[in-house]
Amino acid sequence: MRTSSVDQIIIETLSKEHAHLTSLQVFEEIRSQLPAVNLSTVYRALERLVKLGKVSISDMGTGSTVYELLADGLHHHLVCQKCGNVMTIGHEEVSRFFATIQQQTQFDIVTNHLILFGTCKACQAASELQKDKTTTDN
Ligand SMILES: [Zn+2]
Ligand SMILES: [Zn+2]
Question: Which of 42, 92, 115, 124 is the most exposed place for a label (fewest CB within 10 A)?
Answer without folding.
Answer: 92
